[in-house]
Specification:
Keywords: Signal. The chain is mainly α. The chain has one domain. It has 9 helices and no strands. Helix 4 packs antiparallel against helix 8.
Length: 167
């Protein structure tokens, strides 16, 4: 089934980047960061053929990025993020798929990020993306662009096949 790799990617993304606002992600082109950050796990990004050194460097960049993003949040926002993370973790332990973690929009809307916070997070994510892509060889970058295009196309197909909410 064509959607399985995308579903796996979305699930892994929700697990790995629980502290990263997906609402801000929608305003930036960070899909390559997400694909690269999953390099150590199985999935479509596996075809990039990353070396152990590349994987370690990318994971380090991802950890630094998450720490910088977390620093943007107020204590109240951090508490809300932690509560949402724990709720998702409890759902996973019970064998459930945490629906809010799939898109993250509901949880992040509740954070009420200021425009300044959104701008800072967007900047951190763009810098992180550039750093991660700099770790790749030209061939790996080309393959990443291909993966992004395929994922975007599958997303568009899924979106077009969804009934409208007003139906």
């Amino acid at each position: 089934m064509q959607l399985k790799p995308l579903s796996l990617l979305v699930g892994a993304l929700a697990l790995t980047l629980t502290a990263t606002p997906f609402a801000v992600q929608a305003q930036t082109n960070s899909s390559s960061v997400l694909l690269i950050a999953q390099a150590g796990k199985k999935g479509p990004w596996e075809s990039l053929g990353l070396s152990n050194e590349q994987k370690a460097r990318i994971q380090e960049i991802g950890r630094n990025s998450r720490a910088q993003i977390e620093a943007v949040f107020t204590p109240e926002q951090k508490a809300k993020m932690e509560a949402a993370r724990q709720a998702r973790q409890a759902q996973r332990q019970q064998g459930q798929r945490p629906q809010a973690g799939r898109r993250g929009g509901k949880n992040f809307a509740e954070l009420n990020l200021t425009e300044e916070q959104k701008t800072r997070i967007r900047s951190i994510r763009q810098t992180s993306q550039q750093q991660m892509e700099a770790v790749l060889t030209p061939e790996q970058r080309a393959k990443l662009q291909e993966l992004k295009a395929n994922a975007r196309q599958r997303w568009q197909q899924r979106r077009n096949n969804q009934p409208s909410p007003q139906s």
